[in-house]
Amino acid sequence: MKGLSLFFCFSLFIVAFIREADSASQAQNNGIYIVYMGAAASSNGGTRHDQAQLISSLIRRNKNAVVHSYNNGFSGFAARLSEAEAKSMAQRPGVISVFPDPVLQLHTTHSWDFLKYQTDEKINSSPSSGSDSSLIGADTIIGILDTGIWPESESFNDKDMGPIPARWNGTCMDGQDFGSSKCNKKIVGARFYEESDDSGIKIAGSARDENGHGTHVASTAAGSPVAGASYYGLAAGTATGGSPGSRIAMYRVCTTFGCRGSAIMKAFDDAIADGVDVLSLSLGSSPGLEPDFPSNPIAIGAFHAVEKGIVVVCSAGNSGPGPKTVVNTAPWILTVAATTIDRDFETDIVLGGNKLIKGGGINFGNMTKSSVYPLIHGNSTKSNNNVSEADARSCVPGSLDENKVKGKIVLCENLDDGEYFPSDKLDEVKSRGGVGFILIDDDERTVA
């Protein structure tokens, strides 16, 4: 009888172990879904009864199932669900939509691919002249959803700014290399949203910007005046944001690899409670892939923010011109289109016989005007017979011979249909010992 009892207990243990392992396996295979339930219960951040019931049922199954809960501006949550659970959840009373957590992209240009080559050089600028609380936008609080912020930038000094508006309810989260003391009267708040999944979109525990995009966007919107700013002596003047008297609240929802929709919705939810006046987002879906409004994190968050009197400004993307290339098109969003500018930085190319050609470009090299450097076409520098003429003329990676390039200025063409960035071709010339790089682009009719 004792042996039977031990066998029965052992069997129960095995069954429990198998169930636990199966549950863990299911949890590991679950994806993150957003469950949107419409309006919030109240303005005090309370949880709706039906929302609380759904969350409670998930936690009983898996204590780590719920990723975010939305209670301030709207109701809902993000949770790890199986596809079957998501379909079942969509049928529950009070649920408006259930959709997979999308990864949205930052909106920027390829300028950063070029600028990376100068990051190890010092940009000289005069000390800041400070900011003035009487400047445009004084006491407006701009919430920015992006990659974070570099608080040490002179664009975020708070000299001469008045007290933080009493209506501000936000916080400055302590994080890695970004303590709450990094906030000031200019950067009044900073939040970050950590998520653990297999997408690679894992935000480090800090509001610090690891990319530069968020800092760029924040300074463009509300940077304090910085006198004597220039880019290696070019375009010298005072750098200032469009609303230099405004305060900044940063919500870090992105990494270089993208922005989780569930984190974006949580940032909207927090920003509504924090008391921002304006929300700025330079991110969005890929052109032609923007979901319908009930499954669109930005459209949902913006709708409820506007409902609370917050102006939401979003970028239209960097694609186009062409049909269906604009994103963030919800009618309650102020969508800002991209455009071109009517100026270039010109560099003189002086050929033999003193023939002068002007091209758009910036020279940061050590070449002097008095020296003469050999000029060679990429097609004459093929690394081997297996390299095509088109690849060599385009100076694509791996196409050039170091012995033929070293010490010369290399003339390249843009014949690869956009497969490689100009920065890739510049890398190829630099890595082979070239001292200069000239790119001819027939599509743009430019020499750079």
Automatic annotation (TrEMBL):
Molecular function via GO: serine-type endopeptidase activity
Ranges of residues in domain Inhibitor I9: 33-107
A Pfam family (short name) is: PA
| Domain spans labelled Peptidase S8/S53 | 137-386
Q: Which InterPro entries match?
A: PA_domain, Peptidase_S8/S53_dom, Peptidase_S8/S53_dom_sf, Peptidase_S8_His-AS, Peptidase_S8_subtilisin-rel, Peptidases_S8_3, S8pro/Inhibitor_I9, S8pro/Inhibitor_I9_sf
- Where does it sit, as one GO cellular component term? extracellular region
Q: Which residues form the PA domain?
A: 392-444
The record's Gene Ontology biological-process terms are:
proteolysis; regulation of stomatal complex development
PANTHER family, per this entry?
PROPROTEIN CONVERTASE SUBTILISIN/KEXIN
Annotated family = Belongs to the peptidase S8 family.
Q: What is this protein called?
A: CO(2)-response secreted protease-like
Taxonomic source organism: Nicotiana tabacum
Q: Which gene encodes it?
A: LOC107773612
